Amino acid sequence: xPDEQPAAFRLAYVPGATPAKWARxxxxxxxxxxxxxxxxxxxxxxxxxxxxxxxxxxxxxxDALAHGDPGPHHTITLYEETTVVVLPKDHVLTAGDExxxxxxxxxxxxxxxxxxxxxxxxxxxxxxxxxATTADAIELVAAGVGVLLxxxxxxxxxxxxxxxxxxxxxxxxxxxxxLWAQPTSALADEFVGIVxxxxxxxxxxxxxxxxxxxxxxxxxxxxxxxxAAGQTPGKPKGNRPRRSR
Length: 245
Hints:
Number of strands: 10
CATH architecture of the largest domain: 3-Layer(aba) Sandwich
Order of helices and strands: EHEHEEEEEHEHEEHH
Strand content: 15-25%
Number of domains: 2
Radius of gyration: 27 Å
Structural class: alpha/beta
Number of helices: 6
Mean pLDDT: 85
Strand order of the largest sheet: 2-1-3-10-4
Low-confidence stretches: 205-213, 227-238
CATH topology of the largest domain: D-Maltodextrin-Binding Protein, domain 2
Distance between the termini: 81 Å
Shape: elongated
CATH superfamily of the largest domain: Periplasmic binding protein-like II
């Protein structure tokens, strides 16, 4: 008997990540296999892979692996995110277009427990209270309790009119990538292909691509195309010039 088709493919994703484009492509290519999107915190994604509650995770690496054991796994890096500091709109540091870590030496820094950004050498002074989530930390920045370092996508996600953010050079960046279990399933490979921009049918493990045509076959195809367009091979379009008498 042929293998039973999976009922769905489950993709976990973290705040700030945007899988919508890839989800649309998946729906076009696999209408009979729903792509289920599950929003998780970074700290939850490794466990989701390890317990098979998600087939793949769009997460921050290696941050996710610092919070749990996914078991035997694969990862690929997709892109790096700029680190920014979130500040009250009237903060003195908003005068600069970008900041250095030393600019934060006199600041109180909030470090939420969901740890959207791992920083070993933390600038400034850590606020004793650690908010549970990045969203909670944003509220405390607005209240003037401290400032917050996050990947830029999270600053955009939690945008408020009373807050702004500035890039901080020389800080660790956030790596966004895919995490999934070994061995690779056909559907996981298909999703990787979508993310990497492979055309339908070109993913690894799919049918072989059609062989390249020879020069003679290409020439024959061009003749057929000209004939289909009403052209005769070797003759230009339009009226032939009259012969002088």
